[in-house]
Amino acid sequence: MLERNVGGTDRLARIGFGSVLVFVGTVLALALASPFVGAALALFGAGLLASALARRCLVNELLGVDTSEK
Q1: pTM of the model
Q2: How far apart are CA 3 and CA 37, in angstroms?
């Protein structure tokens, strides 16, 4: 099994920012004539949520950052 590298405040921030970006991105995608900006925001937010729920982040791993409580 892969080791966790996301936890604590980092995880809560990812959940908060990810949720906001998914919401704002969805609203923008539905409201704008060109929905690509909104869709990109929503996808980025979904990525943050996924990394928070999986407690695993590739960027953290590449940078050697570990915010999990061990």
Answers
A1: 0.88
A2: 33
Say what angle helices 36-54 and 8-31 make with each other, to 10 degrees: 160
Do 53 and 12 contact (CB within 8 A), yes or no? no
**φ/ψ (deg, to 5) at 29:** -65, -35
pLDDT tens across the length of the chain (70 residues)? 688 999 999 999 999 999 999 999 999 999 987 789 999 999 999 999 999 999 999 999 999 999 998 7
Where along the chain do its domains lie? 8-55
Report the C-alpha dihedral over residues 48, 50, 55, 57, rounded to 10 degrees.
-60
